[in-house]
Specification:
By secondary structure, this protein is of the alpha/beta class. The chain folds into two domains: 4-219, 3-Layer(aba) Sandwich (Rossmann fold); 223-315, Alpha-Beta Plaits, CATH 3.30.70. The chain contains twelve helices and 15 strands. The structure holds adenosine-5'-triphosphate (ATP). Adenosine-5'-triphosphate is lined by residues 13, 16, 18, 36, 38-44, 83, 156, 188.
Length: 327
């Protein structure tokens, strides 16, 4: 049974389609990253899963129950960290957890919960307003874990955290995943979910544009590199040589520059050696690999970020005959 399963789930606000025919399956026990830029529809989707918002069309199940008709069966079995979660500054940490225990009608011992998320005993009786961001994060996680949920839904939990806080959050998520909890983790930053997610779904303008493992995403861009060669003579006459190489998908010649698009990493070195064998004098080699962040940016139409996040160009070794290209 999937932890979350949506079928053509749609939410319209007047003329705006916030979520557009979403078909999404989150498997039991996985950590699923729900990615998309601000305004993509992540919170609206989560709100429909939690029955805070009603869909315009389509349906969703959470832990096998209909998200609308059986919401009361779902809520005791899930933990939520809502977007923009904040603490009550005057209440101490333990009281926060007691409050969650009462609200959920659970019977957890607050200290056990706070042990589980690593909030040190000395801090538990202090006003949460004095907590560091990392401690607030642990407290939020502790409150969400009351009742030992099967599914944890986190809406942009990494917003506003510094790199240390993000690492702490990732450790908490990993620890929960190891206990078998399914985690649904939304973020607009791929890097924040990359280290912990088994799979990611990328949402853009309300539509799911990719669902894959991180490795799968990497594979899909794995060989997508450009090798730019500065030649001593005209590039045009050497273009057919480059085009004939396995793994080279496109070649553009301009003046003394040859740009080769390559899908097989091994072809980067072959391009150099074959061109040298064909009599070329290569003055410079530049390799540009596509980064995972830039793939994410291109999926979500953020061209500026795609450029900014592309892996830096690397200069290869000096162009001597038969030289190997360093990546
Ligand atoms: N109650 C509402 N009334 C009208 N439009 C809404 C409402 N809630 C959300 N929207 C719109 O729906 C779209 C999706 O918003 P949503 O908050 O789901 O995106 P998001 O991916 O969670 O982004 P963010 O991270 O910024 O919250 C946006 O264009 C937003 O302005």
């Amino acid at each position: 049974m999937p932890a979350i399963d949506t079928t053509a789930l749609t939410k319209e606000y007047g003329d705006l389609t916030a979520v557009d025919g979403l078909d999404l399956t989150v498997r039991e026990g996985e950590v699923f990253g729900f990615l998309g830029p601000n305004g993509a529809g992540k919170s609206t989707t989560i709100n429909m899963l939690l029955d805070f918002t009603r869909p315009t069309a389509g349906s969703a199940t959470v832990l096998g129950y209909d998200a609308q008709a059986e919401a009361d069966r779902i809520s005791p079995r899930i933990g939520i960290i809502p977007e923009g979660f904040d603490i009550y500054p005057r209440l101490d940490g333990r009281r926060h957890v007691e409050f969650a225990v009462e609200t959920k009608d659970a019977d957890d011992d607050p200290d056990d919960v706070l042990d589980r998320v690593g909030l040190e005993p000395a801090a538990r009786d202090r006003a949460a307003g004095e907590y560091s961001t990392g401690m607030r994060q642990r407290l939020a996680m502790g409150m969400a874990l009351v009742g030992d949920p099967d599914l944890l839904i986190m809406d942009e939990p990494s917003s506003g955290l510094d790199p240390h806080g993000i690492r702490e959050l990732q450790d908490l998520v990993r620890a929960e995943a190891e206990r078998g909890t399914t985690v649904f983790f939304s973020s607009h930053i791929l890097e924040h979910v990359e280290a912990v997610c088994d799979r990611v779904g990328v949402l853009n303008d309300g539509e799911l544009v990719a669902v894959d493992t991180i490795d799968g995403l990497r594979e899909s861009i794995g060989g997508e590199s450009t090798v730019g060669l500065a030649l001593a003579g005209p590039a045009e006459e050497l273009a057919p040589v480059a085009k004939s190489i396995d793994g080279v998908t496109d070649v553009a010649a301009s003046g003394r520059t040859l740009e080769c698009t390559i899908v097989d990493p091994a072809a980067k070195a072959t391009v150099v050696t074959e061109l040298v064998d064909a009599g070329a004098t290569i003055r410079d080699v530049r390799i540009r690999d596509v980064s995972l962040e830039s793939l994410f940016a291109s999926l979500t139409g953020d061209a500026d970020a795609a450029d900014a996040n592309a892996a830096p160009e690397s200069d290869a070794s000096p162009p001597t005959a038969g030289s190997e290209v360093a990546e």
